[in-house]
Structure formats: structure tokens, C-alpha cells
Design a protein that fits this description.
Blueprint: E1 7-8, H1 11-23, H2 25-36, E2 39-44, E3 47-52, H3 55-63, E4 68-69, H4 78-81, H5 91-101, H6 107-111, H7 114-125, E5 133-135, H8 136-153, H9 155-159, H10 161-165, H11 167-174, H12 179-186, H13 191-217, H14 224-230, H15 241-255, H16 257-272, H17 276-284, H18 291-296, H19 298-310, E6 317-321, E7 325-327, E8 330-332, E9 337-340, H20 342-346, H21 391-408, E10 409-413, E11 420-421, E12 427-428, E13 433-439
Parallel strand pairs: 1-2, 3-9
Antiparallel strand pairs: 2-3, 4-6, 5-13, 6-9, 7-8, 10-13, 11-12
GO molecular function: heme binding; iron ion binding; monooxygenase activity; oxidoreductase activity, acting on paired donors, with incorporation or reduction of molecular oxygen
Pfam family, one: p450
Family: Belongs to the cytochrome P450 family.
Length: about 450
């Protein structure tokens, strides 16, 4: 019989690793890879973990959907996302729900959002003035939250500022914690659970009221909410009321934070890397923003991919072994929690030459040393059958916002480090403050 994965077995070493991952998950994951290589294990009994890093490990995880589950591992997200959300669904239930949700994110539907995304970005930039200091990440975080709700779930919900800044944000903040802390809080039945449940209940009540209003009017609408309400499977069955609410909550939770975080990093990296801002601006300057124009911005595409490589929205993710598995001739016992990390893969020198360097040209197929990306080497939104269903929406929103910023704004970054926080959406801890040197006129307005 194959041996189990080599690794950490003593309680003291296990606690040290857990503390390291909780204190600084980014450096902790890199240190775990340095110490244990691409496959190692730790823990014992019911608390057994496997750390799997790199393309081979990623491909192993993505190919093993029938033998790996997410429900136990992502139980910490249930208080906000709900019991039937895609992110916590497995097997046949997951496949059915994903098929019903997928049409809501068809590329033609996403293309139809470009004009509204651009107009809303322009409306925000219109409020800025030269000489002003602006935290670009925070400003676009609020805008992206409102725009995401507006495009996916309608103007009425987007106009409900009390909802957006109140219970919705409290619910999202509840799961914006280190994974180990979430596991502990999930086990506490009192304060955390009660507050989170109350915040979620307020949001769910507002979603239910919106659906009821549309049904009473006889028009479910053409946005994602309407698509979810009207979706039917091969047997003519639709999503239940609970399933619709849970998908909406899950999409709200994932739909804006990843976009605004990546935008903050891209803005910072472009301004602080010689020549990148000027080159990207030259590509987009004066070009009317349409889906076709967006697709033609090759260098901007390289900038976005390189930003997502260095600062992926999914830092690490987990699965549970539903049966005993074998990887590289080593046994992974049933019940083991598997941890894999896009962040580590994206910073492995064996995968990406000079991995710590921000180099958009590495994505140019004609550049010397270009290394084609694969689903196992570039996975900012995860992979396999649980890859983020809204990834195309997020990257489109990101490109639109960056294109408008490039076309209209010049800025000077303020002194001081910009460092990451959170593993639910790797974002700039203290924002991205810049002094605006120039703000050019824009022609778009909210539509």
C-alpha cells in the first residue's frame, strides 16, 4: 500500500503552520511550498490536510470532481451564501444549478453591459479634480458594488443605498476573514452566527420583494435575476425560491470584491512600472468603448492577465477527499482536506520565469521566452467544474474601468507600500491612494 504524503505530524509544528497561515497567508503558503514541496501533508485523524502545489497538483484536483467535494470545506461560507449556492454545492445538484445559472453569464449578455459599465465609471471620474488625492481602490469598490447589483439584479436593488452599505456589506464583511478564523467562528453558535444571519435575512427579504414585484408586474426582467427566475431544466423544473436567493447572495458576494481588488492592483502596478501606463493609455485613448473595441485592446489584456497572475482573486481553495486517493504514488486518506493555491502556482519560478516581476509582455505570444498559459498554470478564478461562473463578467468590468481610467486620468502614487490582505479577495490593505495630475473630460453619462 502506498505511503501517505510526507509532511508535518507533530501538534506543535501543526499549530505553528496554522498560525503562520493565519498571520500572513501569502508568505505562509509560499513558505509551506518551500518546506514541503509540491505535495505534503499535516495533521492527524479527522484533522488531516494535504498541501498540493503546482500544475500537476492543480490538474489532479480539477480532474477529480467525482472524488472531491466542496461542501465540508466551504461550510464557513454557508451563513452568507446559503445552503444551495454553487460554491457549496456538489455532484448532481451542482451540475443542475450550474446549467441553470450559466446562461445568465453568456458572452452576449455580458457584452450588453459594457456601455453601462463605462458610463458609470465616467460618472465617478467626473467627480474628481486635478490636485485631489483619491483612493482609487475604495472609490471603485463602492462603484463596482453598485454597478454589479444594478446590472445583475436591477435598478431598484442598486438604488437601495441602505441595502448596499448596510446589511449586504455586513454580510460580506462576515466572511472576509482568514480561513482558520472562519472555521472557529462557524463553530460558535452565538454572536457571529446571529449577526451574520440577521444581515443575510435583510438582504434576502429585499431580494424576495424584488422577485415578487416583478412577478406581480408580469415581467421577470432580462437581467441575471430574471434569468434565474425563468430558468428551466430538461424536465421543465426551475430553481426553487431558496436556490434563487442563494445564487443571488453568492453572486453579490463574489461579483464586485474580486473586480475592485484587481482594479486596485492593476492601477498601482501600471503607475509604478516604467512605461506601462503610457503604453496602455496609447492603446485605449480616444477609442469609443464597445465590446469589439474592448476585445481589440491586446496590451490591456496582457496587463489584466499579469495583474491576475500576481494578485489572483482566489489565493487558495480547498476540497475534501470523498474516498481514498493517490497522488504521485502517495496515499491521501478519505476525509483529508486538500488545499491548493493559485497564488503559489503563479509565483513558482519553474512555471513562470521571474515570477515576482510585473511583466505584461510575458503574455505576448511573439515575445522571447513566452510561456503559454494553461488551466493548470494560470487559474486566478480557480478551475475545474467549480471555476468561478462570473469570471468573464469580472474581467469585462475590470477592463472597462481600466480603459476609462487610462483614457481620462493621470496620477502620481503616494509614497508608502501597497500590501495585500484577505484570501477571499486579495485586495490592497490600505487602498491605492494617488494624487490626480490630470482629469480629462468624458462624454459618457449613466444610462
Amino acid at each position: 500500500m502506498a505511503d501517505t504524503l510526507p509532511g508535518i505530524s507533530s501538534p506543535r509544528a501543526l499549530l505553528r503552520l496554522a498560525a503562520m497561515l493565519a498571520r500572513d497567508p501569502y508568505e505562509g503558503l509560499l513558505a509551506a511550498h518551500d518546506a514541503g514541496g509540491e505535495a505534503s501533508g499535516f495533521g492527524w485523524g479527522a484533522f488531516r490536510y494535504a498541501l498540493l502545489f503546482g500544475p500537476e497538483a492543480n490538474a489532479f484536483v480539477f480532474a477529480g470532481s467525482a472524488d472531491l467535494t466542496v461542501r465540508e470545506a466551504f461550510d464557513v461560507l454557508v451563513p452568507v451564501n446559503g445552503e444551495t449556492a454553487l460554491i457549496v454545492s456538489d455532484g448532481a445538484a451542482h451540475r443542475r444549478r450550474r446549467r441553470l445559472v450559466q446562461p445568465a453569464f453568456h458572452h452576449r449578455r455580458i457584452d450588453s453591459y459594457v456601455a453601462r459599465m463605462a458610463a458609470n465609471a465616467d460618472a465617478l471620474i467626473d467627480t474628481w479634480r486635478p490636485g485631489q488625492t483619491v483612493d482609487v481602490y475604495t472609490a471603485f469598490r463602492e462603484l463596482t458594488r453598485r454597478t454589479t447589483v444594478q446590472l445583475l439584479f436591477g435598478d431598484r436593488l442598486a438604488a437601495d443605498e441602505a441595502l448596499l452599505s448596510g446589511p449586504l456589506q455586513r454580510a460580506l464583511d462576515a466572511i472576509d476573514k482568514p480561513y482558520t478564523q472562519l472555521v472557529l467562528l462557524r463553530a460558535l453558535p452565538e454572536v457571529f452566527q446571529r449577526r451574520t444571519a440577521a444581515a443575510r435575512a435583510e438582504v434576502v427579504a429585499r431580494i424576495s420583494a424584488e422577485i415578487a414585484a416583478r412577478e406581480e408586474a408580469g415581467d421577470l426582467g432580462g437581467d441575471v435575476l430574471g434569468t434565474l427566475a425563468a430558468a428551466r431544466d430538461d424536465h421543465g423544473d426551475g430553481l426553487s425560491d431558496t436556490e434563487i436567493r442563494d445564487q443571488v447572495m453568492s453572486l453579490m458576494a463574489a461579483g464586485y470584491e474580486t473586480t475592485s481588488a484587481a482594479l486596485g492592483w492593476a492601477f498601482h502596478l501600471m503607475l509604478t512600472t516604467d512605461g506601462v501606463w503610457e503604453r496602455a493609455r496609447a492603446e485605449v485613448s480616444g477609442v469609443p468603448l464597445t465590446p469589439a473595441a474592448l476585445a481589440s485592446f491586446t496590451y490591456l489584456d496582457h496587463v489584466v492577465n499579469e495583474t491576475l497572475r500576481l494578485f489572483p482573486p482566489v489565493v487558495m481553495t480547498v476540497r475534501t477527499a470523498a474516498r481514498e486517493l493517490e497522488f504521485r504514488g502517495r496515499r491521501i486518506p478519505e476525509g483529508t482536506t486538500l488545499i491548493y493555491s493559485p497564488y503559489v502556482t503563479h509565483r513558482m519560478a519553474s512555471v513562470w520565469p521571474d515570477p515576482g516581476v510585473f511583466d505584461p509582455d510575458r503574455w505576448d505570444p511573439g515575445a522571447p521566452g513566452h510561456v503559454p498559459a494553461t488551466p493548470a498554470t494560470f487559474l486566478p478564478f480557480g478551475g475545474g467544474n467549480h471555476r468561478c461562473i462570473g469570471s468573464a463578467f469580472a474581467t469585462t468590468a475590470l477592463k472597462v474601468a481600466l480603459a476609462r481610467l487610462l483614457d481620462r486620468v493621470d496620477g502620481v502614487p503616494l509614497p508608502g507600500p501597497v500590501v495585500p490582505r484577505s484570501i477571499t479577495a486579495m485586495r490592497p490593505k490600505d487602498g491605492v491612494p494617488v494624487r490626480l495630475a490630470e482629469v480629462r473630460p468624458g462624454s459618457a453619462s449613466p444610462v
